[in-house]
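Q: A reviewer asked whether we had any structural model of the full assembly, not just the individual parts. We don't, so I'm hoping you can provide one. Inputs are below.
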Amino acid sequence: MKTVKSSFKFKGGVHPDYNKELARDKAIERMPVPAELVVSMSQHLGAPAKCVVKAGDFVTRGQLIGEKNGFISVCVRAPADGKVKAVEKRLGPAGGKADAVILDTTAKPEGESDERRETGDGSSHVSRPSSPILPPLDWKTASREDLLKRVEEAGICGMGGAGFPTNVKLNPPPGKRCEYLVLNGAECEPYLTADYRVMLERADRIRVGVEIMRKVLGGPAVRIAIEANKPEAIAAMEKAFADIDGNVEIVVLPVLYPQGSEKHQIFATVGRVVPEPPALPIDVGCVVENVGTVAAIADAVEKGEPLLERVTTVSGDAVAEPKNVLAPSGTKYSDLIAFCGGEKVPPAKLISGGTMMGFAVSTPEIATTKTTSGLLLLSPKRVFQYSSQACINCGRCVRACPMNLNAAEIAKAVEADDVKAAEDAHVMTCIECGACSFSCPAYRPITQFCRRAKNSIRARIAAEKAKAAAAAGK
Amino acid sequence: MVWTVSAENWYNIGMSYIIITLVGAVLVNNFVLSRFLGCCPFLGVSKKLDTALGMSGAVVFVMTIASAVTWCLDHWLLTPNGLGYIHTLAFILVIAALVQFIDIAMKKFVPPLHAALGIFLPLITTNCAVLGAAELNYKQGLGFVPSVFFSFAAAVGFGFALVLFSGIREKLAHADPPRCFRGIALALVTGGLLALAFMGFSGLDKGIERILK
Amino acid sequence: MTMAILCIAGVGLVAAVVLAIADRYLSVREDPRIGMVTAALPGANCGGCGFPGCDGYARALVAGTAPNGACAAGGEACAAEIAKILGVAAVATERRVALVKCCGTRSEAIRVGDYNGICDCNVAAATAGGDKGCTYGCLGYGACANVCPKGAISIRDGLAKVDKRLCIGCGKCVTACPKKIIELVPASATIHVLCANPDKGPQVRKVCGVGCMGCHLCEKNSGGKEANHFTFQGFLAKVNYENPPTDEQIVAKCPAKCMSVDPHFESGH
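A: Here is a predicted structure for the entire assembly that you could use as a starting point for your response.
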């Protein structure tokens, strides 16, 4: 096992102010289970889970409340004991509405004593404190199929933000072999320090997770990618992986946004380029997973603990005490903010995620999901109301684009309603990282233009597919 | 402009003539940007690169064949009978019939291009560019091959200017000019600027002539 | 002199013969009805029929692959003329116009945030669901106004309104709206419910001063359930356009003030 410096640097990228010192040195703190949890059925990429409980049911921690619905889907489990108050549509951070189970965690069935509910490792409501939810497995002796099934049952999806079902990612289709397993510890978004703290404090879990994933993927080489501005995390990972066998390397990456993007991680660690969509990383023999997901896999297999909670960085200059909070999924943002001392000043912006690719939300009644890595409260000092002007063809966005696209041309084409020209300029390769909007001196919302073009093109392709299917059906 | 070759040597065409004619007809005395012949299809078909290329091809074809036919007509029918004074009338008759023929042939063999060019294909008939090339050939009184080559070079120049202009217009389509300038107004201004730019080539053919001689 | 005339005549004759031969062997026979139908169509090239321009629709009509009456812009008169040309029976179609089912202007419906971005409803809706408190309502950034080929939609105080006199019923605005609150309604119907929020009354009141609360008063005042002038989706009243109400009094009696008599004219509502 050795530590190397990355020998590949991608063109483009920007350097936003990171402001990570607000929450970097705050150890992960577990918050008490809030009185109400809003557990969404759509916390992942793919079809939303099918709800299997109804209003009035009592559920225990870890009980299945949403069944996997299709191949690209993930199941949902109750993050705490409680009574189902209702199952209704609630607003998600991205603006869409999805079915959610409203859980009242203070309610308990008749005749149940309170003692059973006080014990546990810090959480106030644990149904069976000493027995795990799923039977623990010994990864050394368990079969590959059992391990994959455990990942599926635990409801694990990519915790870096996209939420792709992990059991699907770890099971490449026949004919495609995984040669490199890349651990994404870059965390290039400003303000966020959740992955950093996980690497510092739970490095041993990551080690176990890597062993499990190596077994499932058939023994690929492992590359742990960490940005150079996290030396303590690098040291912690070096210590945890010191005696591991096989081709394992820690790759130190230059500090650049969006280093944490899947395709750029592959390029920086292995030097391979993923072709245009619909090509996926597995087509170049790579699987990229967030370090949080890896730790979750270790817990699911060894401890039988499904994915019920995650570390979320609550930061920004409008929150009293920035912290890295370990909260159950379904925690409302208002509860998170209250746990962190409340608002120091009324925030001008509430962002779910990071400042570059996060979603600005309009209400703190939205709840966390398995992929919420951060909650930022920004004061009016830090938020800038802009009015965009015409493009001056300065080319800063073209220089900044990490996918080598001509962002200015795409934005101008979309503004003139010429989606075909945007498609010819390869807008479908855009990863919506926001580097272009960040660097524009005329404050043009270029990322929004790209997103609009991509939605238009996707809608058109879907309509064409539907038409072709209808014609074929006739 | 170009030194004359006697009509008897109608097959005689030297390398230096080729270079000078090409440079002259394409850059120095571009039919559209210097002589301002053929502005109608130039402005009408230059919105997209594909239609521009299609139109260029059509004009090259028409101009070359038209100049060949008109040269023969003049050399064998009009001039020997002293009817040089009605050459314009005869030329326009031949060009009109030729373009009509090409219109029918295109509709049969390349219907998409025919639909894309639309009204601008028969417009080549009343287009001064084709008649202008024929007239210039008559005035220069060169042999068959030099005349045809000159028309071919002139058509290539027309196509060159058209492709350049369509490239600019495709980019301009995404721009956001003031209301009064939108559409053809901005195109005309751009065309004028392009014509100004091409004035920078003046004297180039004289210089090459001096080098080659 | 004669020589000149003979020469020109001769050249002309040769040209005519060549063209005649070309026309005989090279020309493409096209149905003359296509030209006649194209002339009968309004020529707006709006694409509302689903075909590429009036020429495309004419070709499909003559080929028999398109139904007559798909041209909303031409309306009944056009359909009748086309039927005459093609020699088929005319199909009666009623004129339909677009209606924006929302009356929540900026002054009546609250906005929960400042939207800073591209002035387009689809983009705004993709950003946290839009900045309007009511997640079902019109965002007012003009996606519908931009696609209308007749310029019949105007945005006033953050709300889109369709001018019935200009609307040709092509349906482009219906597809453009991300909230899907524009509906094509019969032009003859005068009473409409301008709301699309099916939530309970108190929830609607929290986000909009003029939202439908589902009180059923409109149904009661127009003859009750048996009269079948209204249907209800959750707590939202919807006019039954196959049997629309005609009593304009029920509009005044609506406590939420979300109903309107002919909201299409500029001065309406």
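A: Points you may want to mention in the reply: The mean pLDDT of chain A is 90. The radius of gyration of chain A is 22 Å.
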